[in-house]
Amino acid sequence: MEIIDSHCHAGHGDGLTGPWDTSAPLGAYLRRARAAGVTRTVLFPAFHSDYAVANREVAGIVASRPGQFYGYAMVHPARDAGRVHQMVGHAVRAWGFCGIKVHRHDGRISREVCEAARRFSVPVLYDVMGEATAVELLATEYPDVAFIVPHLGSFADDWGAQRTVIEQLVAHPNVYTDTSGIRRFDLLAEAVARAGPAKVLFGTDGPWLHPGVELAKVRALGLPAGAERLIVAGNWLRLTARARPGRPRRPGSRAAIPQDVPRLAGGQPPLADRGDPWVVQPSAATDPR
Q1: Residues paired with residue 200 on neighbouring β-strands, in sequence order
Q2: Which candidate, 230, 179, 214, places its Cα nearest to that of 36?
């Protein structure tokens, strides 16, 4: 059976505040993934102060194992404002990337990101960090864009956020989740039972979580073979089908940042230490009025 890990970090960050923005080495992950039967892996950067640089490094890793690795372009909604379209377009056309990654720890997703996803027919993996009500707005404003909300909306086990995401999976055909880091097994089982296996993708949040452990949760659901195949491979293949065929490959490690991607003025200092991006932070959903 084909098994695709749809959520794995790779390469180097430049913040040096924790593993999430320092380095995402793949050595141990690949050994564990091979033992678990994972056949392909989707890669995107660790946190970085310039995602044009980080995406280029990931492109080199993806190009090193064609057919095994796929890439998503990571963007910062605020700092990359004005160049998101160029960044994503180059990643799709030159490197064969087939998705966009955004993290609420960097900033709230923007229309520019959603419109780039629509333009290049790629899904958006958006970690909302518990800000689950935002998914309702995304789903209705961009019904032709697929939004994958990892961890059922909260790596930090925010039960309320995860229940909200389950409701959104049921209500909106363009909202999906992945299995990475979901520890409340009954909520994962409920998401599959209520929304259906076609709305859930297998992911590990590697290289820091063990692919065998994450895959065991899917196997523990006890699904029919066809339903399990959707989760571990079929759904991701369907969501990325328009971006993947005939994708060109170029060794990203040697490729310059393309001329049509504006550089960050004067460079960018490393990310400030804003804490662990997977720990519950004070609510960002407070009405600013």
Answers
A1: 177
A2: 214
